[in-house]
Amino acid sequence: MTDGSPATARPPIAPPSVLGDPARLRALADTGLGAAPDEAFDRFARLVSDLLDVPVALVSLVSADRQFFPGAVGLPQPWSERRQTPLSHSFCQHVVDLEAPMVLPDTRLHPRVRHNLAVDDLGVVAYAGMPLTDLSGRVLGSLCAIDSKPRDWSGAQLRTLADLAAACSSELRLRIALDGAQEAQRRAVQAHERLELLAGVSETLAGTLDVTTTLRRLAAAMVPLLADWCLLTLIGPTGLPREVVSVHRDPARTADVDRFGELLRTGLSPESVIRAVLRTGQPQLGSVASLADVARGTTHPEMPTIASRLGIASYLSVPVRGVGGTVLGAITLVNGGQRQPFDDRDLLTAVDIGRRAGQAVGNSSMYGEQRHVAEVLQHSMLPRLPVVAQLELTARYQPAADRVQVGGDWYDAFVQPGGDVIAAIGDVAGHDIEAAATMGQLRNLVRGNAFSRPDEVGALLSNLDDAIRGLRLATAATATLVRIRPQRAGVHEVTWSNAGHPPALVVRVGGAVEVLVATPEPLLGLARRSPRSSQSTSLATGDTLLLYTDGLIERRDRSIDDGLVELAGRLAGTDTLPLSELCDLLLASIHHREDDTALLAVRAR
């Protein structure tokens, strides 16, 4: 330590080995005291100064490399402001080393301390120090009286100093006990928070089947409760990161942590901790970390610079394991210098989270694959729309959110040999492979039953009832069947029949919306043989006929009738929208996809 004092040729004093005893240092730390004034210990120093009539009195606590004074009277500058000295200026270290009082009438005559720099720099000539101990008898420091001239310490003075040291030790023990109680309370709170976190993580991970959403929700659950910032890494087929989600507790650091995560995907060196976890599946704990660790673990020179802004003082990294123990990725937590370093308890918590995350990621991946297969299968069952000079046809199909089953919604349109266009839409009950298979059969029956036949659409649906019963198709289905007779110019004739399906709508030129309401008729295949009715309307140039399934209007919190009114209101004034934009607008209006949705729109040209 440099204090402006002249250089000296005196040999340095090696600190006693007892100063570095870990148990003693832990007890010293548990006092919560440092190089700052503390009123209780300043009071002890004043009592020593008054009762022993000395100019300087100190409550001195000794660490492995310094002594500091929570209580002090009479120190000269700059020491009175600093409230600490290096061991080169410490007499109290010898009280700790000896674990006994040290009483010196004239320090300049004592071989153990005569070269101590405190003799000249602090004017320590006479010294009397009594040990300050914890409950286990470990000496933490000294309560000392100091005079700037030689002094014969009387027995009464030393007894007074010993009594005050005993009282001062009691205060230290109270501080340690208070710190222990606070630490126990802190650990209890942490344990409770971790239990809540683990329960919340399970609930969070169960709330979605989308991998990216899973990772972001997990990161948000861990920061800031467990860490200042975190990186969630998933690996691809090559074993290297393919997706990284990064979160920092400080929103102002979002750009930095996102950039760090982006560079991480391609910037891990062979010495990277994360890469080691991904390769071996073994967790890593760094209770002390620095930018040098980042530099060793990365190949992008920008990453240590970013890490310095994000803060790094400790880290841990644990594997995300899937079924069978396969490593799917890693969770890396980082703390800055203002937070306690990670310990074994943190590591165990993170390992548990990694295990739960692995199950969720595995389920999400399986769901994604199944959903892709289901959507491909569903779309393979949907037809290609015909091209008709007098009509524009557009269709959409959208599966329900967070579900991998194929559904029973369908649409169809085809041209009769005479030029009429048959359009149909329907919904088979159920959301599984059986419903999809029945949907495919029903659509083919509609085609086979209607193609090349001039019958009214109501009669065609009656024949379809017969076919369903005759083929013993165990199904409940709704449908609307429409025949459009295109005209080269003027108005197109439209007839329709509805078997328990939501009513079709017509958006007229000018924006008015007409609901094609008909007498309610039963679902397909459920009624006894009875004629079905046909209804008629027309489409002028620019009019749009909309067929749809109930996923467009049905919600748990409202009736279908209310949904129909809302849909009609949404369609009002949309007659000038391109047909594809109109269909996209309708699908985008579904905020919570609770059911599959099919649309078939026909506009007269």
TrEMBL record:
Gene Ontology molecular function: any one: phosphatase activity
A Pfam family matched in the record: SpoIIE
Stretches of the chain forming a coiled coil according to its record: none
Highest taxon of source: Bacteria
Domain PPM-type phosphatase: 391-604
UniProt KW keywords: Hydrolase
PANTHER family from the UniProt entry: STAGE II SPORULATION PROTEIN E, STAGE II SPORULATION PROTEIN E-RELATED
Protein name, entry field: GAF domain-containing protein
Species whose genome carries this gene: Micromonospora violae
